[in-house]
Predict the structure.
Amino acid sequence: MIYDAVIIGGGASGLFCAAQLGRRGRTALVVEHSDRCGKKLLITGKGRCNVTNNCDADTVMRNIPRNPRFMYSSLYRFPPAGVMSYFGSLGVALKTERGGRVFPESDRASDIAEALLRDCRKGGVSFVTDHAEEVIFRDGAACGVKCSSGEYLGRNVIVAAGGCSYPGTGSAGDGYRLAEAAGHSIVPITPSLCPIVTAEREECAEAMGLSLKNCTLTLRKEGAKKPVFSELGELLFTHFGLSGPLVLSASAHLEDLNRKKYYMDIDLKPGLDCGKLDMRIRRDWGEMPGRNFSNSLGRLLPAKLIPVIVLRSGIPPEKKVSQITREERIRLVETVKKLTYTVRSMRPVEYAIITRGGVKVSEVDPGTMGSKLRQGLYFIGEVLDVDAYTGGFNLQIAFSTAYACACAVSDRCGGMRE
């Protein structure tokens, strides 16, 4: 059988593209090398699936730090409202939470994955478990995929193989290999939305497991006048450094760590300015004048952070609070308001939520996702050199690029048959 499209990868973009082709009466085959489709969808948003962001296309563009202009056409053609309407039509009730993040009301990512699979089956999409080894070309045009167990022929080939993050879900970087073999340039792959390793690794390890629910993280680049990133939220201390939502968002702003130096400042008491924090400390100490400094911060800070703050403040641990000078107290306030960690690196790409880099977008038509180098070859989703911040924007990229591709392939098939 010659399919209208052979799609390599059964993730978010691949399944959505296949479903859209099925709705248009086109035949599609999804080649997925893992034992089930949509594995990565099942773990997104901590198993809840942040499916998009309830905002307009302009806002999505502002949350794409790399190559946002490439997404202009596809985002305006299929914006977040389109994603929400689509899943609503499939019976998946959605809700909007803080920051415009959209989740299924059930808080189950499986509802999103199963809805996509149902829509694929309804449209007659075929599936095969196999490993794509190479794209087959005839007269310079893509005409099928050679796999481990045989060849699958198609009038179009769509690469939706994802990136390198979470390899256990099937993201093994195959898409980059296939694109490169077809003559495409690959922008170097690095992690994004990833935990950060700090130079103060041992200090972080002492506070390992501590989650701060309400703090401000500010990312600074050495020599820059303005912060690169600053936001209120949650973070987590780990054995290697820092993680959690704030840190993942900050990591998307890190560039060229071999040549640039970055620092993360944590404000442990964002609700209090320095004057009010000083008053709070003096009030606490007024009730315990004979207590040692190291035992005087229990009302102010989590127990795991107290040794860190005591050390950073430079105040002798055994010093009585009644003997602490104003200068020392000011130093303590400054430490609590600006606990600084030095960025050493990001964790390896397999620990990242998404990958940065991929197929060079200047070699891809932004209106169709078609290759400018090879007729009948398309790229969608994370395999492209486009990535966004947290908040549902990366799945929106997957759906918008898949939609544009499905429309283009469907139109091309109509023309080919005529």
